[in-house]
Design a protein that fits this description.
The chain is of the alpha+beta class. It folds into two domains: 94 residues, PAS domain (Beta-Lactamase); 175 residues, GAF domain (Beta-Lactamase, 2-Layer Sandwich), CATH 3.30.450.40. Helices cover 36% and strands 27% of the residues. The protein starts with a helix and ends with a helix. About 4% of the residues have low confidence.
Length: 281
């Protein structure tokens, strides 16, 4: 199994995980290989800082305190195969500092919400699934000041996509009823982008060329800016999750994109669970 193949599973984990390549000599520090999105959020390290990090920065301690979230994390480390070291950080929910001790910055508010959500969805029942997803959309929308937050499912048999969940800010018209069985043929660029695992970010919808298929779809909804990320698992593309900005243009920061990516990964696991529930009914 290659490093990339091994880490693929941990990349989807709802806890912080980072993989390091062991050195050739016992005293040689482990070299950073990759980290999942939750690890980047918890540590707050930039890509350059991660590349320069070593496994011992984390594995040499029993607890790790995140200034990003205000929580302590239990540090675990093990060797899944010779030459590799996996470091994981698991939140200790009852050990946190107060807001007075570490005031949250605006971007950190969303960080804390998503880290809490990864715990909230663990062991969710079929009956609580839909209400919990709806509550999640509300919290995300309010945290980033989006006007709509939504989830779509792809149906590649019927060659359509449908809006399955939607939250709208006060005064914003819902679109879920009009966005059922949307033909994929009308949005080929959108679908192709998601199939390649990339985000669809349109900062200025009105500036799209006249006659553009996406503009014809989005402008009647009053959308000024939009960000969507694919929901994928090992078997392929399942759907997408997104933010709409209607009242104002919105530049989505790297932090907001990263956090929406964490939610998309979480949804991939939840959708497979949802399919199992449906088969059992």
């Amino acid at each position: 199994m290659t490093v990339a193949e091994y880490f693929q599973w941990w990349r989807q984990a709802p806890f912080a995980a980072a993989l390091f390549q062991s050195g050739q000599l016992p005293q040689e520090p482990g070299r950073f290989v990759d980290a999942n999105a939750v690890f980047k959020i918890v540590t707050g390290l930039t890509e350059q800082q991660l590349l320069q990090s070593q496994a011992t920065q984390f594995s040499a301690r029993a607890l790790y305190f995140s200034t990003n979230t205000g929580f302590y994390y239990q540090v675990n480390s093990h060797v899944p195969q010779p030459g590799l070291q996996l470091v994981t950080l698991h939140q200790l929910p009852d050990v946190a500092i107060t807001r007075q001790q570490a005031p949250l910055r605006g971007s950190d508010k969303l960080t804390v919400i998503l880290l809490e959500l990864t715990q909230r969805f663990l062991g969710v029942s079929a009956e609580k699934f839909a209400p919990l997803v709806q509550q999640t959309l509300l919290e995300l929308g309010q945290a980033v000041a989006a006007d709509r937050v939504y989830i779509f499912d792809y149906d590649f048999v019927k060659q359509t996509c449908s809006n399955t969940f939607e939250w709208c800010a006060p005064g914003i018209a819902p679109e879920i009823e009009t966005l059922q069985q949307v033909p994929l043929a009308t949005i080929p660029q959108w679908v192709s982008t998601h199939q390649h695992g990339r985000e669809m970010y349109i900062p200025d919808v009105p500036s799209l060329p006249e006659g553009d298929a996406l503009k014809l779809l989005l402008q009647p909804q009053g959308i000024k800016s939009l960000l969507t990320l694919p929901i994928r698992d090992a078997d392929g593309l399942l759907g997408f999750v997104g933010f709409d900005s209607v009242r104002h243009y919105h530049y989505y920061t790297e932090q907001e994109r990263l956090l929406l990516s964490v939610f998309a990964r979480l949804l991939a696991n939840l959708k497979r669970q949802q399919q199992r529930w449906q088969r059992e009914d």
